[in-house]
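All the exercises in this workshop are built on plain-text protein records. The record below serves as our worked example for the rest of this section.
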Amino acid sequence: MTSEKNKILIAALSQFIPLALLRSGQKHPPFLPFYHVVNDTVPEHINSYEVRSTTNFRKELDYLLKYFLPVDLETIVNKPKKNMMHLSFDDGLEECYTTIAPILKEKGIPATFFVSPGFVDNKTLFHRFKRAILEERGVLIKSGRKFFAHETPELDQLAKSNNISFAQYLSDHQPYMSLSQIKELQADGFTIGAHSIDHAEFWLLPYSEQFRQIEESMNWLVSNINPDIKAFSFPFTDDGISKALFEEVKSKKLVDVCFGTAGLKYDTIPFNLQRIPMERKQKWDAQKIVHFEYFYYFVRSLVAKNTVAR
């Protein structure tokens, strides 16, 4: 793996190379950027990634539109080209409905919203959001400890011991979209995909639980949304997902397309596409990320490392 220091160096070098040159002479995957939220104030439950303001989000979209053709999911799945872009948004947060979708409609940009059924209608709260609330309220020190899904009972006990109610937080703040809002997005022409049941770390799950998370979330998607394309995005990352799991979900017709988060790369699984994270801890803007991804793709191509192997 490339160290963080080397990535920063690569990013710095890439800024001196014109994007047209970075994108020339090679076959590239389509550009698939993804975000989570856009908000002019940072919600208390989010501290794991950078939150774009509406002004900065608009600026980034305008930049991307200079260099990429925005297309819908069907085009990306069936007729992808290297100059194409398809935006997506993970976790089904309420800003997708209130803030992001109106901006996308204004600019004529198609997108896919990936939702986790366990969170829809604000039924429960993502474990990383629980951690963030406890950190913001001084119950936990911001030590960098991530907390994983299986440690949720520890977070719940800490909240209870400090008279913090996550159920009340959900009721008061409504951080997630409702099913009716999700259906409205679909009616407006956006596509909806699944993002597992409850956003657990797949690399920590046994095969049977990985499959269950995909199967149940996709069944929920078909039952409630019935999309033309059955899309699934892996929570956090698809790193370490076995070829056998891809083969099983495909053979059982649970998915048409899957998405990972490895950046500008191809994948040995032809129906698994790799997306580009935009809300990076380095606080890079869209221009820096685009230059980095294309230069990094070129560097990796020199050692035949620009395809995810299984």
Summary: The mean pLDDT is 96. The chain has twelve helices and twelve strands.
